[in-house]
């Protein structure tokens, strides 16, 4: 699935809200760029309702993958740093 970088960042935020706010994926639409919202909506990753955004099951899974890639990237950077020192 091809997602723009700003859309990936938005999915990361939504996943963090979901996990750390214990299932509350409601986020105000005004906090995010309208073009990003449209992109994610067209990909069926979010479901905007009124002024709130909800992750779809597909959106939750995609955002989890993005978070895991970021964590892996951070771990890789630390390992490379350790090896080079």
Question: How is this structure best described in words?
Answer:
The mean pLDDT is about 80. This protein is mainly alpha-helical. Helix 1 (about 5-20) packs across helix 3. A hairpin with a 2-residue loop joins strand 2 (about 45-50) and strand 3. The protein has helices at about 5-20, 35-40, 55-85; strands at about 25-30, 45-50, 50-55. The chain starts with a helix and ends with a helix. The longest helix is centred in the last third of the chain and has 28 residues, at about 55-85. It has a single domain, classed as Arc Repressor Mutant, subunit A, CATH 1.10.10. The chain is elongated and about 50 Å long. Strands 1-3-2 form a three-stranded antiparallel beta sheet.
Name the features:
85 residues, Arc Repressor Mutant, subunit A, three-stranded antiparallel β-sheet, 12% strand, 3 strands
Quick recap of the structure?
The chain is mainly α and 85 residues long. It has helices spanning 5-20, 34-42, 57-84; strands spanning 27-28, 46-49, 52-55.
Topology overview:
Blueprint: H1 5-20, E1 27-28, H2 34-42, E2 46-49, E3 52-55, H3 57-84
Antiparallel strand pairs: 1-3, 2-3
């Amino acid at each position: 699935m091809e997602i723009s970088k700003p859309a990936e960042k938005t999915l990361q935020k939504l996943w963090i809200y979901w996990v750390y706010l214990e299932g509350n994926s409601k986020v105000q639409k005004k906090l995010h760029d309208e073009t990003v919202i449209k992109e994610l909506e067209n990909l069926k990753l979010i479901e905007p309702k009124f002024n709130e955004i909800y992750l779809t099951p597909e959106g939750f899974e995609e955002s989890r993958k993005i978070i895991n890639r970021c964590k892996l990237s951070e771990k890789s950077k630390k390992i490379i740093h350790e090896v080079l020192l």
